[in-house]
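We read letters as residues; the fold follows as tokens. Both lines appear below.
***
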Amino acid sequence: MEHEHKKPLLSEDNTVHDLVPIESLDDGDIREINSVADFFREFFSESRKLWYLAAPTIFNNVAIYGCGVLTQIYSGHLSTTQLAAISMENFVISSISVGLLGGLGSGLETLCGQAYGAKHLDMLGIYLQKSWIILNSVAIGLVFLFLFATQILNLLRQDPEISVEAGKFARMMIPQHFAFAMYVPLAKFLQAQSKVLEMAGIAGIAVCLHAISGWILMMKLRWGLFGAALVLNSTWWFIVMCPLLFVVSGYCGGAWSGFSWKAFSNLFDFFKLSISAALMICLEMWYVMAMTLAAGYLPNPKVSVAALSICMNINGWSGMVGIGFNSAISVRVSNTLGSGHPRAAKFSVIVVGATSFLFGFVVASILLLERKRFPALFTDNKQIQLLVEDLTPFLGVTIVLNCLQNALYGVTIGAGWQNLVGYINAACYLFLGVPLGVLLGFKFDMGIKGIWYGLLLGLFLQAATILLVACNKNWEVEADTVRARLKLLGKM
């Protein structure tokens, strides 16, 4: 088959862009499928490409997420109040900034992936700098969340003791807040070029250092919240500085040609796609925040919040695998659309959907079989352990839906459908999931289980709707849209 992506691409002024060959990930469009054997041939071929991207990204995500989980595990063996405080800061205060900054960074994921597929390598570095400007500007505006966390939680009528401790911890976590604003664009920039092995290696070193230093400061020296903050901040800036040095030292070739004043031009056009992505992701992350807040209103809030945080952490572990699929399919869809191979993009959706669903099902089955044992890993409190055990079936269903949904998110990011998915999320979560959860949890006295029913409804409807959209899209038209978008943004 002729490799179309090796042909030089002329810009509007008839100059040839410097090209870097895409490693054998994009071998053109898929071949005709006329039999079951043809289907499985293409399925395994596409699976190989997805896992090439997904496996290192999954390891990277699990390692980084593991730093936070290890901190919570250490705190859970020190004090129920400290565990609840870290959980409240993580799932309420930080989730607002992480959702917004992570969503804004997803706009970069769309543009870098499509530009790389179309061989406009010179645009990637400019996009990266635009994203840094936007995310750090927003991060400055969000600092008040961390400075006034106690007052915000008190205003939301959370447990006073938890609010005070969570506020202390939030103020100490401001350095991590800015590290995240730097990391998200770096990660998207490197993922678009399939440079994922290096990121996985950095994350592996980081989690090992974090585990050792956290154990010393929190378990041996008993530094509590201060020790947790010191270790987390140090780990996150290590994770940022290593890839940053790779990029600015010329490691990415034509994708980075140094800092440029062009990064300040037409920021609003770039921001529009970024804010659509942010709203898409924030609606889901803020639903988890709403669940945590609602748990704080239940009887015995320390136990409820702590149990929910353990479940959400386990869901987060599996979600890191889902996010690995998310990143891989985003790169595959954006690269294939950018290089003019719409049939390959559509087939990638089928492969990633089946793979992510199967993974979620296996993880959920293991949790159900081990539901009497695993809660003891997170806490010594018997009440919390029993509540986590009782919530495990809900957790299992959530994991299955979350894995599928994360993969489908990657499809929407790669194709640039953030606006549409923002509306879908609003309908599924704000207008259906949240009201049902509140109604069942408080009106019908179902407690945390009722709140969780609302989450499951939102997840199911959202995943089903995005899947229907993806199956019914005209992918040839989507490829034309990508070319038009790159032409427009190429003038920025």
Observations:
- The chain has 16 helices and no strands.
- The longest helix spans residues 36-76.
- The chain has one domain: 42-489.
